[in-house]
Design brief:
The complex is a heterodimer of chains A (352) and B (322). By secondary structure, chain A is an alpha/beta fold. Helices cover 40% and strands 22% of the residues of chain A. Chain A is globular. The chains are: A alpha/beta (352), B mainly alpha (322). The complex binds adenosine-5'-triphosphate and magnesium ion. The site of magnesium ion has 2 residues of chain A, from α3. The site of adenosine-5'-triphosphate has 12 residues of chain A, from β2 and α3.
């Protein structure tokens, strides 16, 4: 079920990458290597695997190497060393070994990308933008328009097919960017800070929309962000990146409740867990439908803090998605027990 | 008083000799003029004259064809064409100005010379575009190429236009075509520079997006970089056009005809009237061409729908059909 496998990936910018690579392999830090070799280690020995249908979030501050990492995955930037595979780890699926035409085929069909500043062509209509990847494939004009409009309808913008990007708001433009990436039906979707340029209200809206869409399409997503809240909300797995390295990889709960070092702790100490955790994350497997029908309902993607009222009755709740179908059961006792345990362990009261 | 004067002259004498002593020419005179003469006359010309002759062949063909055509079109048709183009791209005001200018040029009797000059200008700008746009694209895609090209362009732009004439005459001889060749070389830098600049200022993320979706280099160039650089390229074409016009009189010095020749002979004979007529035609032509090309560039900016080359071509052909 492994969709994307990355092994010991390094990217070094500078005139003499070999020397810097040896130092990095021997454990020297980013600053030290820069001082001695004048080369920047942007990605430093990164390995991870992402399963099919998962959202893998990489979170880090400015300059930590997130953009470089994600651009290595489709070779917009060629890594200095390391391996990237699609579907397991045999040669056939190697991205790093792909040469010119094979690499182009991978980009045309298997890996697509959403950009921070949308990167839409201002002289093309919304539909033409959404069809960009299909055109590069050489698909006929009619077929690619049909598929582009279908893809636009997934993000709710089919009515805007013949408008120009300049006439759309930022949030809408990024949905066009998403439609363009989805139009090629990718196996892996790379998103480099896709929502950072949007204001907070719109950002929440598109985050929700992405989650809903993901339930439907179940593609594999590598999502870059510098916003911990966003990472916790979207990520099935979250990697915290610092100076080109992953300092911790885990689930939202894992990151919040067991930060691996002070750097991660400093990030997460401010996080109100009830605003991070959702019924979807906290629920237990669903009961038989007959029993579920008798329970009160909570939406899977609301936050715990929004459903405290329902939880305080002490009765179990049915977790439902937007269509009302049952996903699982939420037990108030275990929720409060979990919240209490994590508050204590990270010492929120005392402000560690 | 007298003593004083003596001292100063003495001082001047010693200063003079010191001055002479420090002059390099006292010790050895560098015959740069003879070196250059040798280089051009005894090496460049005998070895490369046929190559230069061959290079001017296409210029010759285009120039001849265009000149014949422009002179063959009746005055009223030419006027209507220019007024219509001005109206379409630069608005009613410029259209009226164009109409009045054409009538005035005809009325004072320099219309045939104006057509000759126009064919020179169009030929020069055409070749500047054919040579300059690819060079601009190349210099946008390679920092090394740009590093080599930039000082050459700097030199080309700082050499006074008269200085171009000497090697041109030696290599190409005198006449209309050498005049056009001199104009091409003189007017080339802006179109190269602005094409390169236009492509380089396209946002990196857009180019990345092109490659990320599997486009080839050529697709990225044609579908992303060139359309987004089009406005800048048009500005370069406009500047190239203006520089070509400024070369009209200078080109007459080596035997090119048209309005430049009218000015030149007028000056030679101190015939102020004739010189003025030539200048009058050049200025009106310059204003008309400047406004029209600027209008085309601004149109490319305003109507984003037509930014693409196909859109651009559609507008021109659509106009021709209308
Ligand atoms: N082309 C380049 N040449 C040299 N150094 C580079 C280059 N691109 C990135 N770097 C360096 O690599 C490091 C990582 O940069 P990167 O852009 O990947 O960070 P980021 O995490 O995406 O930051 P941001 O949040 O600002 O986008 C930085 O120190 C940066 O200066
Ligand atoms: Mg970045």
């Amino acid at each position: 079920m492994q969709k994307l496998t990355v092994k010991n990936l390094y990217k070094i910018f500078g005139a003499a990458p070999e020397e810097a690579l040896v130092m990095a392999r021997n454990g020297a830090g980013k600053d030290e290597i820069y001082r001695k070799t004048n080369s920047v280690v942007a990605v430093n020995d990164i390995s991870f695997t992402v399963n099919r249908g998962e959202i893998f979030v990489v979170m880090g501050l400015s300059g930590s190497g997130k953009s470089t990492l994600v651009r290595c995955l489709n070779r917009l930037i060629d890594p200095t060393s390391g391996e990237i595979y699609l579907d397991g780890d045999d040669k056939a699926g190697s991205v790093t070994a792909a040469d010119g035409e094979n690499l182009r085929q991978i980009r045309l069909r298997r890996i697509s990308m959403v950009f921070q500043h949308f990167a839409l062509l201002p002289h093309r209509t919304v539909a033409e933008n959404a069809a960009y990847g299909l055109k590069a494939r050489g698909m006929s004009a009619k077929e690619r328009r049909d598929r582009a409009v279908h893809s636009l309808s997934k993000v709710g913008l089919d009515a805007w097919a013949d408008a120009y990007p300049g006439n759309l708001s930022g949030g809408m433009q990024q949905r066009v960017g998403l439609a363009r990436a989805l139009a090629v039906d990718p196996e892996v979707l790379l998103m480099d800070e896709p929502f950072s340029a949007l204001d907070p209200l719109i950002r929440r809206e598109v985050q929700d929309q992405l989650l809903k869409l993901q339930d439907e399409i179940k593609t594999t997503i590598i999502f870059i962000t510098h916003d911990l809240q966003e990472a916790l909300k979207l990520g099935d797995q979250i990697a915290i990146m610092k100076d080109g390295k992953f300092v911790q990889v885990g689930t939202a709960e894992g990151i919040v409740s067991q930060p691996s070092d002070d750097y991660v702790r400093a990030f997460t100490s401010d996080v109100d867990r009830s605003r991070v955790l959702t019924p979807r994350r906290m629920m237990q497997p669903a009961l038989p439908a007959a029993e579920m029908a008798g329970l009160g309902k909570v939406r899977a993607d609301s936050y715990l803090c929004d459903v405290f009222g329902d939880l305080s009755t002490g009765r179990k709740l049915a977790v439902v998605d937007d269509d009302g179908s049952y996903l699982g059961v939420l037990d108030p006792l275990s929720v409060f027990a979990h919240l209490q345990a994590t508050e204590n362990s990270t010492g929120i009261g005392g402000r560690a | 008083m007298a003593i004083c004067r003596e001292v100063t002259t003495q001082a001047a004498d010693t200063a003079m000799s010191l001055n002479d002593m420090l002059k390099p020419s006292t010790h050895c005179q560098v015959p740069l003029d003879r070196w250059v003469e040798f280089f051009v006359k005894d090496w460049l010309v005998p070895n490369f004259r046929p190559a230069f002759r061959a290079a001017q062949w296409p210029v010759d063909q285009v120039m001849r064809g265009l000149e014949g055509f422009l002179h063959a079109v009746p005055f009223y048709a030419m006027t209507i064409f220019f007024v219509a183009v001005a109206w379409r791209f630069a608005g009613r005001g410029v259209a009226i100005f164009t109409l009045v200018s054409f009538l005035a040029i005809e009325a004072v009797g320099v219309y045939p010379d104006t057509m000759t000059t126009l064919s020179m200008i169009i030929t020069a700008v055409l070749f500047c575009a054919i040579v300059g746009i690819p060079l601009g694209i190349l210099s946008a895609s390679s920092d090394r190429f740009e590093a080599i090209l930039r000082p050459i362009l700097d030199v080309m732009q700082t050499i006074p236009s008269f200085v171009y004439l000497v090697p041109i005459v030696m290599l190409f001889g005198v006449g209309m075509i050498p005049g056009v060749v001199a104009t091409i070389i003189f007017a080339l830098p802006p179109i190269i520079r602005l094409t390169s600049l236009g492509i380089r200022q396209v946002r990196e993320e857009l180019v990345e997006a092109g490659y990320a979706f599997g486009s080839t280099r050529r697709q990225v160039l044609w579908e992303i970089q060139l359309p987004l650089a089009l406005r800048m390229i048009m500005a370069g074409l406009n500047q190239t056009l203006m520089m070509a016009l400024s070369m009209v009189v200078v080109a007459a010095l080596i035997g090119a005809g048209g309005l430049g020749l009218t000015v030149y002979t007028g000056l030679g004979r101190l015939d102020v009237g004739a010189a003025f007529l030539g200048g009058f035609g050049i200025v009106l032509l310059a204003i008309i061409l400047d406004r029209i090309t600027q209008g085309i560039g601004a149109g490319a900016e305003q109507r984003r729908a037509n930014w693409t080359f196909t859109g651009f071509v559609k507008r021109i052909t659509g106009f021709a059909r209308a």
